[in-house]
UniProtKB/TrEMBL annotation:
<dbReference type="InterPro" id="IPR003593">
    <property type="entry name" value="AAA+_ATPase"/>
</dbReference>
<dbReference type="Pfam" id="PF00664">
    <property type="entry name" value="ABC_membrane"/>
</dbReference>
<dbReference type="InterPro" id="IPR027417">
    <property type="entry name" value="P-loop_NTPase"/>
</dbReference>
<dbReference type="GO" id="GO:0016887">
    <property type="term" value="F:ATP hydrolysis activity"/>
</dbReference>
<dbReference type="GO" id="GO:0005524">
    <property type="term" value="F:ATP binding"/>
</dbReference>
<keyword id="KW-1133">Transmembrane helix</keyword>
<dbReference type="InterPro" id="IPR011527">
    <property type="entry name" value="ABC1_TM_dom"/>
</dbReference>
<dbReference type="InterPro" id="IPR003439">
    <property type="entry name" value="ABC_transporter-like_ATP-bd"/>
</dbReference>
<feature type="transmembrane region" description="Helical">
    <location>
        <begin position="244"/>
        <end position="262"/>
    </location>
</feature>
<dbReference type="GO" id="GO:0015421">
    <property type="term" value="F:ABC-type oligopeptide transporter activity"/>
</dbReference>
<dbReference type="InterPro" id="IPR039421">
    <property type="entry name" value="Type_1_exporter"/>
</dbReference>
<dbReference type="InterPro" id="IPR036640">
    <property type="entry name" value="ABC1_TM_sf"/>
</dbReference>
<feature type="transmembrane region" description="Helical">
    <location>
        <begin position="43"/>
        <end position="65"/>
    </location>
</feature>
<keyword id="KW-0547">Nucleotide-binding</keyword>
<feature type="domain" description="ABC transmembrane type-1">
    <location>
        <begin position="18"/>
        <end position="297"/>
    </location>
</feature>
<feature type="domain" description="ABC transporter">
    <location>
        <begin position="329"/>
        <end position="550"/>
    </location>
</feature>
<keyword id="KW-0812">Transmembrane</keyword>
């Protein structure tokens, strides 16, 4: 209900118009009840045809006018609801694209998709038809007042049943708070498992993960089904209670009304009209009761989506842009522990790489080499210390500008679902096909591209995993070259490549060094380590930096 009121308060002018339209709809809606009373009392009593004709023309006009105002009211409701949820959904998607990657890593898999679906559900629950219907709720009082003018005792009965229905909504909402939260958590567990099953591929089959995942599935889906069942049972119980209240109210009004008729305090026409008016007073409240579970669920969905939006840190959209980056890189007192790990991978790390210098990084598996490269590219933030580019902390730089200075080859290259050309143009907008081909030739992929009928427009699917690993790594190297940044950051560039490709990587490194690029390369390859002017060995007990006299 809070969400509904918040939405209305955001559009005060449209809300006033919506309630004015509702006032007219409800006032005109009274016409059919009054028509019944008048026909029974005046026409049936005296049999004057002209009276019946006049009353019928009047009610037809009123019913048509009511229809017009209902349509108008729907448009006003659409004005109020339009855009809010769409903005939230777009904002969530934007957040996925701009959030700090390490912050997303720490969240459950599939969470964003669940939240998006929740926003879609909320869009339907708080949609214009429901809002228009709910705008009738305050007019229950209007019908009860009209009923009081006809017969105070009957109005009292209708008021009691209307109040009882409102109370049932209130209690119902309190009872479903906990199951709705639990159902959302169970839905998240199901989504995480579905994601794991979808991305598990060969591993699930070959390493017999199916039975483990199936066991988990049985558990989480049973819990989700149980909670859904509990919520459905509560909703059915509430519907049934409301139907019973409606039936009891009708019976009560007819019984008490009949006594009043026999006592001569009410005529039959008024009794039938009163019954219709009482039903009309109760109807919007019953509609609210029917919508209440989905509105409550939608409120929970929106709360979760907004909490996600608030919790997730995003990369700054702006920052300083240097007139030119000369390639000097400094790691100053750097310390970093990956998300969820208490011990830092390294601390107090000091390294300076002068423009055109070559730093090789080595160390045991899991020592933090790739993590260090992510700190340099700005994909992760250090816990302590700074990464400085030409003396400026990279956190002060515009992330997009900084990335345009860094030719980065990640260890696990991933591509966008799009063509090779689209992937290469994404890193350097305006890159021509000739330059793309030159980069591909340098990594020995020219023939690979030419042999395919779509050439540069060959589509990459599954994030590039449809390519052989060696091809994927070479293509990722070509993409890094396309950036043409003063700083080259390569994670195991010769890993998983055939002999020709390894030779191509060596030549490329030599060429980049001759061009004066600053190179930071993670490698275990002795040839690459020999060619570096500085070698940094990462070790939790203390990193060692050795300088060599060998020029690349
Ligand atoms: N996003 C992350 N969330 C949680 N832990 C992470 C994350 N990234 C890395 N780690 C952890 O940090 C540690 C170092 O990982 P990293 O990939 O940097 O090591 P590495 O030295 O490059 O290893 P390798 O030689 O195997 O490539 C590992 O224990 C890894 O599990």
């Amino acid at each position: 209900m809070k969400e509904l009121l918040a939405r209305l308060s955001r559009h005060p002018a449209a809300t006033v118009r919506l309630f004015l339209a509702s006032l007219l709809v409800n006032a005109l809606g009274l016409a059919s009840s009054l028509y019944v009373i008048q026909v029974l009392n005046r026409y049936v009593g005296h049999g004057v045809g002209a009276t019946l004709f006049t009353l019928t023309v009047g009610v037809v006009i009123a019913v048509l006018a009511e229809h017009v105002f209902r349509t108008l009211r729907l448009e006003l409701a659409a004005e109020i609801v339009g855009g809010d949820d769409e903005k939230l959904a777009t904002g969530l998607f934007g957040l996925m694209l701009t959030a700090r990657p390490t912050a997303l890593d720490a969240r459950p898999r599939g969470e964003a998709e669940i939240l998006m679906r929740g926003v879609e559900r909320a869009e339907a629950a708080f949609g214009a038809p429901n809002l228009a219907a709910l705008a009738d709720v305050p007019f229950s009082v209007f019908f009860l007042l009209v009923l009081a003018l006809l017969s105070p005792p009957l109005a009292l009965i209708a008021s009691i049943f209307t109040a009882a229905t409102v109370a049932s909504i209130w209690f119902g909402q309190r009872r479903t708070v906990a199951p709705i939260k639990a159902a959302q958590a169970a839905g998240q567990a199901v989504a995480t498992l579905v994601e794991a099953a979808g991305s598990g591929g060969d591993a699930i089959r070959q390493f017999r993960g199916a039975s483990l995942l199936m066991r988990r599935w049985v558990q989480v889906s049973a819990r989700a089904r149980e909670l859904r069942g509990q919520l459905a049972a509560q909703a059915n119980g509430a519907t049934s209670l409301n139907q019973a209240l409606q039936g009891l109210m009708g019976a009560g009004i007819i019984a008490v009304g009949a006594i009043l008729v026999v006592d001569g305090k009410l005529d039959v026409g008024a009794l039938i009209g009163a019954n219709l008016i009482a039903a009309r007073a109760l109807a919007p409240v019953v509609r609210l009761a029917q919508l209440s579970p989905s509105l409550q669920q939608a409120e929970g969905d929106l709360r979760a989506a907004r909490a996600f939006a608030v919790d997730i840190p995003v990369e700054p959209g702006r920052g300083a842009v240097l007139a030119a980056y000369h390639g000097r890189l400094e790691l100053r007192r750097l310390a970093y522990a990956p998300p969820g790990q208490p011990m830092p991978l390294f601390s107090a790390l000091d390294v300076v790489v002068e423009p055109g210098g070559v730093l090789a990084i080595t160390g045991r598996n899991g020592s933090g080499k790739s993590s260090l490269l992510r700190l340099i590219t700005g994909l992760a933030d250090p816990d302590e210390g700074q990464v400085l580019a030409d003396g400026v902390d990279i956190r002060q730089l515009d992330p997009a500008w900084w990335r345009a200075q860094v030719s980065y080859l990640p260890q696990e290259p991933i591509f966008l679902d799009g063509s090779i050309a689209e992937n290469m143009a994404a890193v350097r907008p305006g890159l021509g096909e000739a330059e793309m081909r030159a980069c591909l030739d340098k990594v020995g992929l020219g023939r690979f591209v030419d042999e395919h009928p779509d050439g540069l427009h060959r589509r990459l699917t599954l994030g590039g995993r449809s390519l052989a690993l060696g091809q994927r790594r070479r293509l990722a190297l070509a993409r890094a070259l396309a950036v043409n940044g003063p700083l080259v950051v390569l994670d195991e560039p010769s890993e998983g490549l055939d002999r020709d490709a390894v030779e191509a990587v060596y030549s490329l490194l030599i060429e980049l060094a001759r061009l004066g690029r600053t190179i930071v390369v993670v490698s275990h390859d002795p040839n690459i380590l020999r060619g570096a002017r500085q070698v940094l060995e990462i070790d939790p007990s203390g990193c060692r930096l050795t300088a060599s006299e060998v020029a690349a």
